[in-house]
Amino acid sequence: MALKHLFKLFSSEILIVAFGLIVGVFVARGFGVEAKGALASIAAIVGLGSALSSFGVTYSAVKLGSSNTNWIMIKFSVYGSIIALLFLVIYDLQGWSQFNVFHYILELYIILFLTIYNLQSLAFILSRSSKYYYPLAIVTGQVLAFLFLLVMFFIQQFEAIWVTLTTAAGQFFVSFYYIKKIHLSESKVRIGSLAQYLKLSLNQAPIVYITAISVHIPILALSSVSLKEVGIYSVAAASVLVLGKIPRLLHGMTIGGIMFNGSGVRSDFFKLQFVMIFLIALFHLMVSFLIQLLYGFNFLPAVSVAIILAYSMIPLIYIGLGEARLIVFEKYNTLIAYKFINVSLLVAAIFILLIFDFEFDAELIAWCIFGHRYLSFIFLIFTTRFASVRVFA
Questions:
Q1: The pTM is what?
Q2: Sequence ranges of the domains in the chain
Q3: What share of the chain is helix, strand, coil (3-state, %, to 5)?
């Protein structure tokens, strides 16, 4: 039963990935490797900035059910986007990126506002009964981005910042409409101030920060060296994205108590782990053909990177389940300590490689991710035992 619920959601996630793949393939085919890298680099900059300035409020957004939800979300997005913009300016002054923040200051502020609002609203929508608005919002953003890419292709001028802005705007229109028009009050909760809103999120904020750093820092470090290598890495990461959806959905659904609770947890886990390994092996056999077919000969270096990233996903099902258990049992400090140590080692390894002038490319970053995930798996086993949390319970 647990697997049935998971793959029901997985089917809708595949639709989202498919539309995103179309946009990615069009950028790669129409504008080349460096354009793909520029788009991934901007996405990482915006992603890290918005995550660090959101203070974990996606958790608060899920908890809200009052009529003033939309106002609180907009109000927080205004302040959060200002903080995020300051972060990006400081980041640009350090000279770590090939992207000129000051040149696109207005566009970046709008993107950050839309992104922070979307983080809250989409988390809220996903927790409600009208779940189809979540994929609708994502797909709408991707469709608008694709239409904008068509225009840029005809005029032969690529601007990654405008693709990012169009995507965020499309998601905003759908999610804003849902919150404003579709959502009905589901409880008597009343949040009258930002202070109350933030208070609900404080125990989740460090987890959000650490996760954002682990996701975006590898790309930002790579972008400081070569946009071409970022393009190769982004294609490899996109290729394994469908596989990564399984642990992500497992994590979220376990927190929600929808699945992986009860006597059959261990059995369901091993079944899902077997499916995951089978899909990874199948991916290994087909990845060279798929990347060449979709992206072209110029992206063949992404094949080895994609294979490394695929095999790095084997421990993610256990990690997703174990971390969710720690959250369910409110072992926040333990979870934060465990994630902080793991991510610190990842960031330290990346910057040591940069400082000592290793051949810093997409494949090296993939090996860093590989080591990070297996080390996380080992640490989590000891962490759950230390916290007296049974993962298979």
A1: 0.85
A2: 1-33+204-393, 56-201
A3: 80, 0, 20
